[in-house]
């Protein structure tokens, strides 16, 4: 059989995590319309009759604001370039090629590894995808160029086939039933963070992280305790909201999704704490 690692790389918000979930067929990585959601290297496993491809989701490259977090994320992406068998480079045809895109491309173009250019979001009307041609002009630097929709799951099969064709002979690296490297604690935290991202304006999401303290499975219910950690008191107040309304909203959305995925009732105890040092632990 064949097996190997396939890197999903691209700037923030192009749809890397969405594509990972679509390829694996289940939601592993959190996704958001807001940039810089993914903060860890996440593996998603695809098993086919031919073999096993392990997709590696990476944090989006993001040059907009220099911060400790951005620096750490860029470092993680650079480290993930080792021991990769193929690269899927994802771009968003609604956005112009700019300094940021060229910087990401600069990181991979010298690598002697098969590269596939994925022009994502093909479900959007043509007039919104007004940079499609500019990206297509890069085709000579790639083994293949595919236009697809990660969100709708259209034209995914050609990508799967291409990826498998580039993988070397090898044994399965993950047991058949295991689809990811992340554990339930991480996964639950990501779901909660995704919901927090969806509730607040730009400023707050970059100042928070989620820590799951405990997950207890009882016969009829999961009891989950989690903390939202944030840098400052003023953010804590925003996250809790008037009469606890915002926190409740996040909790309800997260609980709904967790219940759907776990096929069981969930009791989610969510608190907010100020912790100025959370970025250092990422
Ligand atoms: N219309 C459309 N939207 C998409 C598609 N793929 C992803 N999106 C949307 O684009 C946004 C970003 O998706 P993510 O998968 O979180 O992007 P990402 O590249 O992982 O972002 P970072 O983790 O911040 O680097 C979300 O709102 C997705 O729903 C697609 O094929 N079509
Ligand atoms: Mg992501």
Kindly report the average pLDDT value: 91
Number of beta-strand segments: 9
What's the number of domains? 2
Q: Estimate the helix proportion, in percent.
A: 25-40%
What ligand molecules are bound, each kind once?
A: guanosine-5'-triphosphate, magnesium ion
* CATH architecture identity of the largest domain: 3-Layer(aba) Sandwich
CATH superfamily of the largest domain: P-loop containing nucleotide triphosphate hydrolases
Strand content: 15-25%
Based on Cα principal axes, name the global outline: globular
Computed CA radius of gyration, to the nearest angstrom = 19 Å
Q: What profile does the largest beta sheet have?
A: 6 strands, mixed
What is the count of DSSP helices, taking H or I runs of 4+ residues?
8
CATH fold annotation of the largest domain:
Rossmann fold
User: Structural class, from helix and strand content?
Assistant: alpha/beta
- Regions with little confidence, pLDDT below 50 for 5+ residues: none
């Amino acid at each position: 059989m064949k097996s190997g690692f396939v890197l999903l790389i691209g700037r923030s918000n192009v749809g890397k995590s969405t594509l990972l979930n679509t390829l694996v067929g289940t939601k592993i990585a959190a996704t958001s319309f807001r940039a810089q959601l993914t903060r860890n290297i996440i593996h998603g496993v695809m098993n086919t009759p031919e073999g096993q491809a392990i997709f590696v989701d990476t944090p989006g490259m993001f040059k907009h604001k220099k911060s400790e977090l951005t620096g750490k994320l860029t470092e993680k992406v650079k480290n993930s370039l080792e021991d990769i068998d193929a690269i899927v480079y994802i771009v968003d045809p609604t956005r112009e090629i700019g300094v940021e895109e060229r910087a990401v491309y600069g990181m991979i173009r010298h690598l002697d590894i098969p590269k596939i250019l994925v022009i994502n979001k093909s479900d959007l009307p043509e007039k919104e995808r007004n940079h499609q041609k500019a990206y297509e002009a890069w085709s000579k630097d790639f083994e293949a160029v595919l236009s697809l929709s990660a969100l709708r799951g259209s034209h995914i099969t050609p990508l799967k086939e291409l990826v498998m064709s580039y993988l070397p002979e090898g044994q399965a690296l993950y047991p058949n039933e295991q689809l990811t490297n992340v554990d339930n604690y991480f996964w639950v935290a990501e779901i909660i963070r995704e919901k927090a991202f969806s509730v607040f304006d730009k400023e707050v999401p970059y100042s928070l992280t989620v820590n799951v303290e405990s997950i207890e499975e009882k016969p009829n219910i999961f009891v989950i305790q989690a903390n939202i950690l944030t840098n400052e008191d003023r953010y804590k107040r925003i996250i809790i909201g008037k009469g606890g309304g915002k926190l409740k909203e996040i909790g309800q959305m997260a609980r709904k999704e967790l219940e759907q995925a776990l096929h069981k009732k969930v009791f989610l105890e969510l608190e907010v704490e100020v912790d100025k040092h959370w970025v250092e632990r990422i």
